[in-house]
């Protein structure tokens, strides 16, 4: 129910735009503006990807740069979604029985249990936060050769900025 006493002109109207692009089957599915979690998918039905040496670069309006590098033998199986939780958010949101450290053995074990279905794996990273992006964030997934494989951006527009874009 809307309170009739609230003057509509005092409210700030915003619009958040999310964009993503990938070169291949490994892509961002989501990146939390609050800095809690980054989600990547392998949408291939047949191919696993070894992300060893791959890294995520995140830049936000509040923080200039953050880099997260995948450890040795970090394999993302076909049809798998990986949630990369910051350690502070994971402590609040992840039950202990689904917490996985960044190791291919735990992911492969989980994958064996979920054969032929899309799998979801939660990883608690050592990052305290992925950094908050109040107005905008740019997230890049880079392969071990430094080539961009995927990008995910968000931008929050105020009503004034929305009018300028139209």
UniProtKB/TrEMBL annotation:
PROSITE patterns: LTD. One of its GO terms (molecular function) is structural constituent of cytoskeleton. Keywords: Coiled coil. GO terms for biological process: heterochromatin formation; nuclear envelope organization; nuclear migration; nuclear pore localization; protein localization to nuclear envelope. Pfam families: LTD (PF00932). Gene3D superfamilies: Lamin Tail domain (2.60.40.1260). Residues 14-156 form the LTD domain. One of its GO terms (cellular component) is nuclear lamina. It comes from the Eukaryota. This is LTD domain-containing protein. It comes from Adineta steineri. The lineage of its organism: Eukaryota, Metazoa, Spiralia, Gnathifera, Rotifera.
């Amino acid at each position: 129910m809307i309170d009739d006493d609230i003057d509509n002109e005092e409210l700030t109207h915003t619009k958040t735009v999310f964009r993503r692009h990938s070169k291949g089957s490994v892509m961002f599915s989501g990146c939390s503006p609050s800095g809690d979690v980054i989600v990547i998918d392998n949408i291939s039905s047949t191919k696993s990807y070894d992300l060893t040496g791959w890294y995520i670069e995140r830049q936000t309006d509040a923080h200039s740069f953050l880099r997260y590098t995948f450890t040795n033998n970090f394999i993302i199986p076909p049809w798998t979604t990986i949630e990369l939780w910051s350690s502070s958010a994971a402590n609040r949101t992840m039950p202990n029985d689904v917490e996985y450290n960044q190791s291919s053995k735990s992911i492969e074990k989980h994958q064996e249990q979920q054969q032929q279905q899309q799998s979801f794996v939660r990883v608690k990273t050592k990052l305290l936060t992925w950094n908050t992006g109040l107005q905008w964030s740019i997230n890049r997934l880079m392969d071990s050769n430094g080539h961009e494989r995927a990008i995910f951006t968000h931008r929050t527009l105020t009503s004034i900025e929305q009018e300028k874009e139209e």
